[in-house]
């Protein structure tokens, strides 16, 4: 098995202690940093698919993402300023009045693993704060809004509509337990995902469309 | 007419109930004991008996543990003993007087004197160390996690001993959310390793000491954990959501465990709820899930509502379905 294949396998298996060494070995063998990064992104794609299908659970996804981030730490100094490695910036947050962060954090982690730079606004985020974050950050390609409660669905709608009013071309993705594809379409979002793995796939699809 | 308790027994054993069990009607919950866990007031925050900071912001439906760096209790799971200290459970008899009076006031032929425990082991662990850290630690530091869970089990056994000594409960209602709406948080294999033996000890202890009924709350998907629930000794899974295939679960496991729920609180208990919406969901769940091994109930884990009137409206609609179907 080549070093890159080993990196892929160990990221998928969530071996965060082994991945940095393997990434270094792959570099030493002459693999390009971008190639290694892509291998890890591909691994996380597989992890996302397995999560979406119910084959693996949250812990397996978390340790895989942690393993990838350890590998990325090795690559970062070598890729500084290499914008081609990024799919752009994604602003993410849980909407106003809603304090649930676990689902949002998982989605953030998976979108980051797909190749985005993340700006995480946390929870209870007013609609205007999403707009401000788009303004304050460079190369924002996507805004992801999460809402877990039926009571905060109006805030989700307000967030999407406020972002769209300020930035009509900005892609907005929504998710959370009570959100359905129909609701996402109704409030004017560009995409919906039922879980963190699908969110990463949808994010990539929207940002590269 | 059967008493509430007799009717529940008939539902559970697949016998001849004379009506639907109305949500929590058969359980007289003992909430005023000196060892009932602390909760923050709405709009406030507290540091609970374990050092966990809990906050209940205005306008929210429940409280949240605060997990920033400053407030997280276990900062390094391998050194959990440095951070975790179980609270005192020794209280004089006077401190139990209200709870004892409450228990004595219950007609045990009609209702189960039911003690309440929350949070359970899984939640307790992530209250102490955050969800993400806890879930990763099951892989990365399994020995320390087993030790921590053993410590919490020991605490729960002492808690059970106090409840039994003072109140002689007929039932325990134990909370521990094990999943999201679409899946369990951890795999059945991991659950079997870390939680099945732990709960088997706790629920076994209650049963060995005269507690007849174990009711476990998890308002989530958890169909994949039902074999473990049965193994642990759970009699009623409260909170079963429609994302589980409830009719199929009843068919497959109804002889061994009863399912209580089917009315998703998020769909009926919200600011603009109407009696018509409630009626629709109650009818649907009663029709779909039938009379045996099933208790129609909101999925939320207490006989209360977030928006006034919902709980009682569900009860009224269940009465209507009893008239219609029995």
Q: Could you explain how this protein is built, in words?
A:
The complex is a heterodimer of chains A (209) and B (326). Chain A has nine helices and five strands; from the N terminus they run ααααβαβαβαβαβα. Chain A has 209 residues and is α/β, with parallel strands linked by helices. Chain A folds into two domains: 79 residues, Methionine synthase domain (Methyltransferase, Methionine Synthase (B12-binding Domains), Chain A, domain 1, Orthogonal Bundle); 122 residues, 3-Layer(aba) Sandwich (Rossmann fold). In chain A, helix 1 crosses helix 4. Chain B is α/β, with parallel strands linked by helices. Chain B has a single domain, classed as TIM Barrel. Chain B has 13 helices and ten strands. In chain B, the strands form two sheets. Chain B has a seven-stranded parallel beta sheet with strand order 1-5-6-7-8-9-10, sandwiched between helices. Chain B has a three-stranded antiparallel beta sheet with strand order 2-3-4, with no helix packed on it. In chain B, helix 9 links the parallel strand 7 and strand 8. The longest helix of chain B is centred in the middle third of the chain and has 26 residues. Chains A and B meet through helix 4 and helix 5 of A and helix 5 of B.
Q: Averaged pLDDT of chain B, please?
A: 96
Sheet with the most strands: spatial strand order of chain A: 2-1-3-4-5
The profile of the biggest β sheet of chain A is:
5 strands, parallel
The number of helices of chain B is 13
The CATH homologous superfamily name of the largest domain in chain A equals Cobalamin-binding domain
Helix fraction of chain A?
55-70%
Oligomer: heterodimer
Major sheet details of chain B: 7 strands, parallel
What CATH architecture label of chain B applies? Alpha-Beta Barrel
Shape annotation of chain A = globular
Shape of chain B: globular
The first-level CATH class name of chain B: Alpha Beta
H/E series of chain B: HEEEEHHEHHHEHHEHEHEHHEH
Share of residues in helices of chain B:
40-55%
Query: For the CA atoms, what is the radius of gyration of chain B?
Result: 20 Å
